[in-house]
Write a structure and sequence with these properties.
Elements (H helix, E strand, L loop, with lengths): L7 H25 L4 H12 L11 H49 L4 E4 L3 H12 L4 E5 L2 H10 L3 E3 L5 H6 L7 E4 L4 H14 L4 E5 L4 H9 L3 E3 L1 H14 L1 H10 L8 E6 L11 H4 L1 H5 L2 E6 L5 E3 L12 E6 L1 H11 L4 E2 L1
Parallel strand pairs: 1-2, 1-4, 2-3, 4-5, 5-6
Antiparallel strand pairs: 7-10, 7-11, 8-9, 8-10
Helix pairs in contact: 1-2, 1-3, 7-8, 9-10
Length: 340
């Protein structure tokens, strides 16, 4: 644990000072008041605990020692006590409860996403997942990144994302997908390799800083490889040449002010719409959602599909609509169509 209001070493040092004061008082009363070691210790203990010492010391030296113990020892004792309470409740206990809560939330996650690396790209990925209400866990070894996750309220696992045990803590076995976006291409290769070995069927999207790394990431097991620089350059060119098209795509991909979203829905084997055509289902009329494309297993996308297209198991529907319209479509497809 890294969070402490007062470090354990400082608390031990303060306790050591307190013991030293008690020892000095005991020796002092033995010498100045001719008390036995036990009597000297009890006299010192009474003064430090603010109980009082009964009779005043007979000698001037004993009286000055009593004043010294009251002035320094009692203050030190109170400071040690309050610091210890602050350490246990304000620091250690609070963090312990936080870690237990985090572990409980992680153990309950299913069909979530792992974001490996919380730099500029990873932070943007997390923002998009959060806006779409998709559950996710950030995996990063940088304490500064973990601090940001705490501030944003994101679930996280602190550690090297290429480490199998760290990925298991993040719930990789129950995850729907993983985004490998650490700063280096080599790091993303190792993350992808580790994830692919643990979860052979999981969707993995990896970041590549250079085109040379694309093949390596694909061979390591990435389903999709994304270059932020290529995407950024393409977007800037489109904004210059086709600004209205870019504005429209910004809207339908969730970046604009309107609530129109492009989603994908996969039809499972017991979906209520199997064997029926788009026209029969009256999807547009009943839900307000537009079917932009249908992709059947092993085939390419059928954009602007014919209304008489029969929907079958394994088909993926690419839809456009508001969140409420998409929810209506999901209810139409119920019981087992799932967003993927």
């Amino acid at each position: 644990m890294k969070y402490r209001r007062l470090s354990p070493i400082r608390i031990l040092a303060l306790i050591g000072v307190l013991i030293g004061i008690a020892a000095a008082g005991t020796v002092g009363f033995i010498i100045l008041e001719n008390q036995s070691p036990l009597a000297g210790f009890l006299t010192t203990l009474n003064l430090l605990s603010t109980v009082g010492m009964g009779e005043m010391p007979a000698s001037l030296g004993g009286q000055l020692l009593a004043v010294f113990l009251i002035a320094t020892g009692v203050g030190t004792l109170l400071y040690v006590f309050t610091s210890l309470i602050d350490f246990l409740i304000g620091g250690y206990l609070a963090e312990l409860l936080g870690e237990r809560s985090m572990k409980k939330k992680l153990s309950d996650l299913k069909n979530h996403y792992l974001i490996c690396g919380f730099g500029r790209v990873g932070e943007q990925v997390a923002r998009e997942f959060s806006r779409s209400d998709k559950p996710f866990v950030v995996v990063d070894a940088d304490p500064a990144s973990i601090t940001l996750c705490k501030q944003y309220g994101y679930l996280f696992v602190e550690g090297d994302a290429a480490n199998d045990e760290v990925l298991r803590k993040a719930g990789i076995h129950n995850a729907a997908g993983l985004v490998a976006c650490v700063d280096s291409d080599a790091g993303n290769v190792f993350v992808t390799l580790s994830a692919r070995v643990i979860a052979p069927d999981m969707q993995i999207v990896a970041r590549a800083n250079s085109e040379d790394s694309r093949n390596k990431l694909e061979k390591a097991g990435a389903d999709k490889v994304v270059s932020p620089y290529s995407i950024g350059g393409r977007e800037m060119a489109n904004l210059m040449m086709k600004p209205m098209v870019s504005d429209y795509l910004e809207v339908v991909t969730g970046g604009g002010e309107l609530e129109i979203r492009v989603e994908q829905l996969r039809l499972n084997g017991d979906s209520a719409v199997l064997g029926k055509s788009i026209k029969q289902l009256q999807i547009r009329q009943k839900t307000g959602t537009s079917i932009l494309a249908v992709r059947k297993p092993g085939r390419s996308f059928d954009t602007n599909p014919d209304p008489h297209t029969i929907l079958e198991e394994g088909d993926v529907l690419i839809t456009a609509g508001t969140p409420a319209e998409t929810q209506s479509l999901e209810q139409l497809i119920t019981p087992t169509a799932a967003t993927s």
